[in-house]
Amino acid sequence: MEVKLExxxxxxGALKANDGITLEIPAGTIQGILGENGAGKSTLMKILSGxxxxxxxxxxxxxxxxxxxxxxxxxxxxxxxxHQDPLDFPTMSTAENFLVGGSGGLRLDxxxxxxxxxxxxxxxxxxxLPEAPVDGLTIGERQQLEMVRLLSLGARVLILDEPTTxxxxxxxxxxxxxxxxxxxxGHTIIFVSHKLEEVEEICHRAAVxxxxxxxxxxxxxxxxxGLVRLMFGKAVTPGPARIIPHGHSALTLDSVSIETARAxxxxxxxxxxxxxxxxxxxxxGSGQDLLLKACAGLIRTVAGRLQLNGIDMTGKPxxxxxxxxxxxxxxxxxxxxxxxxxxxxxHFLLSHxxxxxxxxxxxxxxxxxxxxxxxxxxxxxxxxxxSLSGGNQQRALLALLRTPLxxxxxxxxxxxxxxxxxxxxxxxxxxxxxxxxxxxxxSSDLDEVLQYSDRIIVFFNGHFSTPLTAAETTVEQLGNLIxxxxx
Amino acid sequence: xxxxxxxxxxxLFQLGAFVLALGFTTLILLMAGAPPLEAYKQIxxxxxxxxxxxxxxxxxFVPLLLTTAGVxxxxxxxxxxxGVEGQVTLGAIFTTWMLRLLQxxxxxxxxxxxxxxxAGMVGGALWAMLAGALKTFGGVNEIxxxxxLNFVATALTLWLIFGPWxxxxxxxxxxxxxxxxxxxxxxxxxxxxxxxxxxxxLLAIVVVYVLLQRTYLGLRxxxxxxxxxxxxxxGLPTWQYMLLAFGLCGxxxxxxxxxxxxxxxxxxxxxxxxxxxxxxxxxxxxxxYRALWAAPVALFFAALNIGGIQLPIVLKLDSTLSGVLQGxxxxxxxxxxxxxxxxxEKRAQAxxxxxxx
Lengths: 487, 357
Hints:
The structure holds two protein chains of two kinds. Chain A is of the alpha/beta class. Chain A contains 17 helices and 21 strands.
């Protein structure tokens, strides 16, 4: 079935998540949707699958104008979405999950359901046991179940959101085979991903979103560097590069290994000097986030040694790292970094408090005002941080950092910020380097990584490059490394 | 169009909620075929009509204010401490235990009374921290943990009254053997009210107000309650603060139990907590966690409780009518507050649109 999106617009508060997106997808196509986190991919897909209502724009399915009011409405129109985390009911059996959402009266016909499940699964080459409880299945199997369920409900347009996260290689191969088969039968497949090589492998065409806008379209075979440029490009007018002296060794990682359920890094070695800035690049979830968290003591290393200013910190908790003047600034500001309902004054008091029982509110407000002025935050001491804009929240997070710092770890320090804020924030960060702090940051903005790092490490699927000198590296080289060529 | 200041507007909304609750209760009275005005008059007369009645209101006010003060702490730390009933009960049990242990010794009575107070506060705190420990170490949501512990506390009371602590001869629902009068909290002549108890309750709410408004501890409780992850990144030991909030709340609830034993019943009775734990939660929700309002609203609720006693006698109405009024008041205040916030959001959005254009 042909899908036509025209001028789709959706705002959340001041943020324009989708800004006039127009896209046509013919029947029988596998359409890739590329873009970094926050680019608006998920919003667009949730609009098409009925989870959100668009503020404006038109959706046409198979030539008819439709209004999609809810997910069940979307299914009735033949649009089904597979979410990144399977939306199933773990305590129920595979057959019961298959039945959920189906039409029918009060009586459950389990036998018919099992037969139908076997038939659909067999046709797609999946082996699903109807009696198996869902919480015992792998992510890949749960995905297969969800796909079978949506198809049995009559889905002709299938949206897959990052479908290859957490599934095994054979499952991925099976999935890709199935998608090709479905496309040949005239189904429309929308494949949302930030993994370029997958889009390259399976999608007939690709569209790139950035900051809520459709910034480019391409057809297979792709010019991969061009796609990288479209995904990551952000024209920052570079300020004059500052020369910052590098001091003693601030952070030393000796054959460090990190392991989580999602990913692992093995045998990582790095020495960072005081005053130095190291940029970590790579597709999201390639392991760079784990490294940052490990350097803050937020996750334990499984092997190797971690030293701060020559002191062994291996296995110590976050609080010990904090005492040694390590700061960690998370990417999700309101979820992890700030306390939404509390005021700026509250935050500064909490962060800067050393001793004493009673709060001196007058002094606290004065202190907050000083920081607000210093960091140019648009808000007053009494403003609750949740009502600040994203850029001002980020400024607040940086203003909260204590002085002095030995090591500053930042996730996406300027994500979602305008050029002016980006430049401002980096000037503040470089001030920290002048005072002797070492910075490790990860960013999905390649220009930012090249502009502000002394050295760059590129991560790909748990592997990592040797540190590259930023001054001698180009966006194209980084793009290749990020895409997994040459790591 | 000129607009009312947000403060005045908030007060108007709350008044509206009060009127709605009153209207709702009136409707129920009409449906029951009772004269509403007469019922309200009886409640007022029943609570403030005489010195004895006023003293009775204050007797209810004291434990209610204490439980309210306690849940204000756990609420600020983002915890739904439903187990206050059990914490009051354990306070009462620990006090009874201490008094029984010491009543035949040669210690001066005032010292025994004070040791009883300390024992009760410790008992309540331990019971609350048990719910906290179940949450932090066992992953049991504090609502279920607290509720479960409430039942355990009730069962424990009954077992003690009918078992180890039963009256000579037979155990009975009337409770354990009363303590000698020299172990009672001193009362006003002819009244059930102890000024010491009243002073303790007022002191407690002042301490909680200062704690939440003026200390770093209060600020940290709010941080832990507002965003656990961010509080952790700010360097706060989060689960320790949660346990501490539980402990402080439990100590205040335990103190309510102490006063029930030492100042009101002078023995352990089966339903010693008398629902003050749940009522305290209602008061805290009604005042939306602002400690300043705790005393007047708790007093109002206490008056409703006592005033309602008169209803069955005079109007053949059940005394739970006060409960209907209390419950509907809380629901309407929360409802109206929700509506007010939606309205404000809409206005903010409208304002943004205007700015953007």
